Amino acid sequence: MELIVIAAAVLSTALILSNLAGILLAAFRLKRPRTLARSPGKAPPVSIVIPSRGVEPFTEETLQRAFSLDWPRYELIFCVAHADDPVVKLINRAIVRFSKVPARLLVGDDRISANPKLNNCVKGWEAARHHWVILADSNVLMPRDYIQHLMAAWRPDTGLVCSTPIGSRPDGFWAEVECAFLNTLQARWQYTGEALGLGFAQGKSMLWKKPVLDANGGIRALAAEIAEDAAATKLVNGLGLRVNLVASPFEQPLGERRLGEIWSRQARWARLRRVTFPLFFAPEILTGVAVPLVLALVAAAGAGISLPLTALCVLALAYLPECALAWAKGWYLSPRTIPAMMVRDLMLPAIWARGWLGGAVDWRGNAMTIRTKAMTELEEGA
């Protein structure tokens, strides 16, 4: 029994310290939002491909931001799968309103994979006129210096520059829970990974050098995995290049969210990570507070220490540094942030377990079964 108590105390302490170390690494790598000026003579033309589907609460604002970038030469290529999508009217209206910015709307669905977003992007990529291409989700709230931030992260050994989304403008408690997932959990660990030399792509904003990707299969090569960002990570690493992150990640305004939406999205992402990077997904169960808290309570019970006091100490060591990170980087904070983090961490074990299970998940209203390429080939050959 004494050995169990000691082991539980050691493991709990190790997990808490690793959590703190991750926050410190991310804090060192991340910068507060700031305006970047364009470097004189270093503004190559850029194509921005924006796959769109449906109208969201902030669609008109994100469209306006895309047409208002501080970059001398860029084109916007909007992609929709179906001509009757309600977002088509908003895009066409914006193209007319901001006629000085070269922009096109392409309609069609190239079925190159089971990933509807990638299918939607194909026509935009192939129509892009410039050597620098950004694939940007339609709900990214682009700052005026959006392109500057992406370009500033490019290095001689870079194959891809990305930005994780930072949740902002939550409307209601469940949207704050989504902020807790996106910001001080997922963004924090992604920047921690980059600081350790384990950078991986994030599909929200992806800056490519088009000739490099075209020489290695083009955008269709990203169909090698069910998630285009996982395929991008493996392709770039296979070329001996690095995935870099912008120093100040871009906002994704959330608006209202419901529990079912959060569960569906997080379950899908968990399944995608489980299928594409199983060795990295396996230890994700240790990233929340649940495991160190249980271990600390086991150790406290065996040592005769107050359980409520132990729980309070563990929660304080977990959540106060998270809040400090959000405050330091100018991310959303409110009196409900810590309760939202607690709900998030209650959900994490179930989400992690769901990642190991098969069956269909929801992808923007489409039920789909996420498999590895090897699994699909095995089933097709059976």
UniProtKB/TrEMBL annotation:
Q: Extract the Gene3D superfamilies matched here.
A: Spore Coat Polysaccharide Biosynthesis Protein SpsA, Chain A
Write the record's keywords in alphabetical order, separated by commas: Glycosyltransferase, Membrane, Transferase, Transmembrane, Transmembrane helix
Q: What stretches pass through the bilayer?
A: 6-28, 275-299, 305-328
The organism's superkingdom is given as Bacteria
One of the protein's GO biological processes: glucosylceramide biosynthetic process
Which molecular-function annotations from GO does this UniProt entry contain?
A: ceramide glucosyltransferase activity
The record gives the membrane topology as: Multi-pass membrane protein
Q: Which Pfam families match?
A: Glyco_transf_21 (PF13506)
Q: Where in the cell is the protein located?
A: Membrane
**Database matches in CDD domains:** Glucosylceramide_synthase
Q: What is its main location?
A: membrane
* UniProt pathway annotation: Lipid metabolism; sphingolipid metabolism; Sphingolipid metabolism
Q: Which GO terms describe its cellular component?
A: membrane
Q: Which InterPro entries match?
A: Ceramide_glucosylTrfase, Nucleotide-diphossugar_trans
Q: What is this protein called?
A: Ceramide glucosyltransferase
